[in-house]
């Protein structure tokens, strides 16, 4: 596994393991690139640490294909969710290598020791209670456009 410069995996106050910055990152700076293995929806794999990607592989009709999964295999797999995150993850498709690329960008200055987070925007069917601790915590890790599809238990946790 490659070791990402300026980042460290630690026990997190949010959940399990998390990733902290070892140096300051400026707003707009690329914090890291994530290494991953690509899976398709019919593959048998564990999606716990996967980014869900758009259907970059086009159909024969040149339409967007089914979603793809990018199983993160570097420290990025331990970056936790927050409702008021300090990074966002961006992705694109490397047509030559037939795989995805993913990178994390600071949305504000990040100080050494600060835990990195991004907004998972989970679909309602995989949503989970959120423990990010932010004053702007939504209570549930979910894409808010799907909030009306949450189970009653999770809907009751929304703030
Ligand atoms: C990719 S893992 C992140 C690393 C995780 N902390 C670990 O130690 O394995 C994603 C899982 O971590 C947990 N997680 C991440 N952010 C969370 C948060 N803000 N609140 C509660 N659980 C969180 C959820 O169970 C989520 O499915
Ligand atoms: Zn939250």
What does this structure look like?
The chain has 159 residues and is mainly β. The protein folds into two domains: 7-120, Beta-clip-like; 121-159, no CATH class. It has one helix and twelve strands; from the N terminus they run E-E-E-E-E-E-E-E-E-E-E-E-H. The strands form five sheets. A three-stranded antiparallel β-sheet has the order 3-9-8, with no helix packed on it. A hairpin with a 5-residue loop joins strand 1 (7-11) and strand 2 (17-21). The N and C termini lie far apart (38 Å). Bound molecules: S-adenosylmethionine (SAM) and zinc ion (ZN). Residues 12, 14-18, 49, 77-78, 80-82, 128, 130-132, 141 line the site of S-adenosylmethionine.
């Amino acid at each position: 596994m490659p070791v990402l410069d300026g980042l460290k995996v630690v026990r997190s106050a949010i959940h399990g393991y998390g990733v902290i910055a070892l140096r300051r990152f400026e707003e707009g700076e690329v914090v890291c690139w994530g290494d991953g293995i690509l899976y398709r929806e019919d593959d048998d794999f564990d999606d716990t640490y996967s980014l869900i990607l758009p259907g970059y592989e086009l159909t024969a009709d040149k339409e967007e294909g089914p979603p793809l999964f990018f199983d993160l295999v570097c420290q990025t797999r331990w970056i936790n969710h927050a409702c008021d995150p300090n990074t966002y993850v961006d992705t694109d498709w490397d047509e030559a290598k037939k795989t995805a690329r993913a990178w994390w960008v600071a949305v504000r200055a990040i100080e050494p020791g600060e835990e990195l987070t991004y907004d998972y925007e989970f679909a309602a069917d995989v949503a989970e209670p959120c423990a990010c601790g932010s004053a702007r915590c939504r209570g549930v890790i979910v894409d808010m456009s799907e909030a009306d599809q949450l189970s009653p238990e999770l809907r009751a946790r929304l703030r």
